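>> received
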Amino acid sequence: MEIYWHDVIGNIGVGLIVLSYFLLQLGKMSSDKLAYSVTNLIGANFLLISLYFNFNLASVVIEIFWIAISLYGITRYILNKNKQSN
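>> returned
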């Protein structure tokens, strides 16, 4: 069985998303903190890299939504941080 680099990247992406969600459920990570959104953003992008080589439309669509939601979370965090410092 041959292991491809894009499959490794995709599995790392899965690991990041699952880990961040698990840590959220354990109360070790907060959804309103930057780390949660960034981890999900990186994970979703890694999955998209894998999906480029092994295309699956439904998976691409959900990862695009995952990226959009993560970017929203990052933007919200930055705006709230700027409000607090003013």
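>> Residues 5-85 form one domain.
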